[in-house]
Amino acid sequence: MTIFTDPAGDGEASRAGAILTVDLDAIVANWRFLEARVGPASRCAAVVKADAYGLGASRVAPALHAAGCRRFVVATLDEALILRPLLADAEILVLSGPFAGCEEDFPAARLTPVLNSLEQIARWRALAGRHGRPLPSVLHVDTGMSRLGLRLEEARRLAQDKATLAALQPVLLMSHLACADEPSHPMNRRQLEVFRAARALFPGLAGSLAASSGIFLGSDWHADWCRPGAALYGVRPTESEANPMRPVVRLDGRIIQVRDIDAGESVGYGATHLAQGPGRLATVAAGYADGLFRALGNRGCGHLGEYRVPLVGRVSMDLVTFDVTGLPDGLAKAGATINLIGPGNGVDDLGRAAGTIGYEILTALGQRYHRHYLGGSAP
Ligand SMILES: *Cc1c(COP(=O)(O)O)cnc(C)c1O
After folding, report:
1. Which residues are tagged catalytic?
2. Distances from the Cα of 305 to the Cα of 13, 337, 338, angstroms
3. pTM, 2 dp
4. Ligand 1 site, residue 229, Cβ cutoff 6 A
5. What does the pLDDT look like over 212-238, one tens digit per residue?
């Protein structure tokens, strides 16, 4: 990944407190890697919900489309409507399904809802009736998440209701795994068995079970379509194993001020850090309003060149302080940047330091960053 070293050379970037660099080519490479991984019998849709996990769906989705991806997944109707004009012929699946009163927006924008309940199915059937033609949809069956989806016995009854099935025109039968990031968890096999029982009810219908982590459980879980999100964005799919994905995100925070501190002086709100001896601090222009969780206070770290610098004191809304004591002269200075997410400190590392997961780090990234995109297609 190209290192973005000259924020001041980039107009707008020189005004921003921090620069978020998103490598679109790395996202495309990750999608291709996952497609190769699932082999010729399966395909990978691209999950671009939550603004492509905070990275900018209107840049990420067209880059994947240019690379040949033709099936996209979002959570909400609004997300789908933003992407529709950017994705021409591609299929867009909407996970939350049609909410009452919004059904007409789906055929109008050629969107495919995931039908999660008998209630959504009934409204979709009624819509197809009003249109006088079947309208494509995805059937969601629950196999162990207990959030959305039909229970197996509900799916069994639906399978016998040929008139409703004809109106729904299902293109996919999907379910979602609860414990796929733990390969040895018994839930993985149990959910696969329930999913197979559900698939047997709808012969000939394509299936989709695995998200990012499920892809790495093995081919039994791949079915016809996988639905990776996090892995596309460089998040490690399997907790206990090395990360095979290419890093996608880099975050660099600008130093506003470097200051010396005496032994016994305190840092930040709550005075939670006390200097043990004379030292030096760098104050960076990013804080919890930018997605640097308060939980990182006295726990996170950054990198200045090759040096690891501990985050000291609490994270403020707009500022965070690093201990740069003992660094070579001239390295820590106003205008220089401290790397907050990068090679030595990936999204999963930051997640662990904050007591959360890389997913939450990405989706919490704020709106104030200057965003710099590498590669991909022209906007
Ligand atoms: C978010 C989501 C995905 C993508 O999951 P990742 O773990 O990010 O790959 C796939 N399917 C469903 C139903 C989801 O909600």
Report:
1. 49, 269
2. 20, 9, 8
3. 0.95
4. yes
5. 999 999 999 999 999 999 999 999 999
